[in-house]
Amino acid sequence: VCSSDLLEAGLAKKNIHFMFAVGMHRSMSRDEAVRKVGEKIVSSYHVFYHNPFFNTVRVGVAKNGLPIELNADCVYADYKIGIGTLVPHPHTGIAGGGKLIVPGIASVETIRRYHLLPQKRWSLDTSARQVTIEAAEMLGLNVKIDALLNGQGQIARLFVGKCGENIEQNYGTIMDFYSVTRPDPAELVVANNYFKPSEPDSGSNYASFFSLIKPGGQLVVSAHTPVGAIPH
Length: 232
Hints:
Structural class: alpha/beta
Radius of gyration: 19 Å
Order of helices and strands: HEHHEEEHEEEHHEEHHEE
Strand content: 25-35%
Mean pLDDT: 89
Distance between the termini: 29 Å
Helix content: 25-40%
Number of strands: 11
Number of helices: 8
C-alpha cells in the first residue's frame, strides 16, 4: 500500500498510522523500521509498535473459547489494512493471513493461550489458524496483503483479499514456492536464518531440520544481525 494513494483518496497525513504487529517480540529499532517501510514513512508518519501488556480491549471469544483481546488503537481505527509475509509456521501451517492479528496485536494473555494450541506444520486445518481468522473478523480488518519474498527480500508474488482466502486460494502456489528437493543427510549442514536473523534458534527448533544431518554430524546456523540474538 502506497501512502500517497491514501493521501490521494482524501486522507489527511495526520490520520494515517503505521503500527508494527510485533506480538511479544521486542520493539524494533528505528533502523529496523526504516529497513521495513523506508525512511520517508518513518520520518513523515506516526509509526509505533504494539505492546501486549497494555492498551488492549476484548473484542470477542473464539469458537474454541480463547478470549480475543486486541490493540485498542487498531480496534477503534476507521479503516484497517494488514500487510504481512507468507512463510511456513508450526501453529497455523503457513504464517500470514490472520496471524498478523493474533498474536501480532493481541494481549499477553491471548498470546499465551494461543501458543498452547496444538501444532501442525503445512496444514490449514489447525485450531490456531481458525483463531487468527476469527480474530481478523472481530477486528474488522478491511483488507489483508500477503507477500511471498524471494532470497533477496524482493516481492515474488502478492495476494490481496481476506486473511483466510489469501492462503486457501493460493495454497498450491505457496507450497510450490517453498518446496525444494531434500538432500541426503550430511556430516555438516550450514544454513542461514534469513527471515529471522535476530532469533537464530527458531529454525533449529524443528526436528525435521536435524533429519538433514547424519548421526554425530554438526549444524551451523548463520544469523547476520547487528543487534545479536534477542529474547523472545
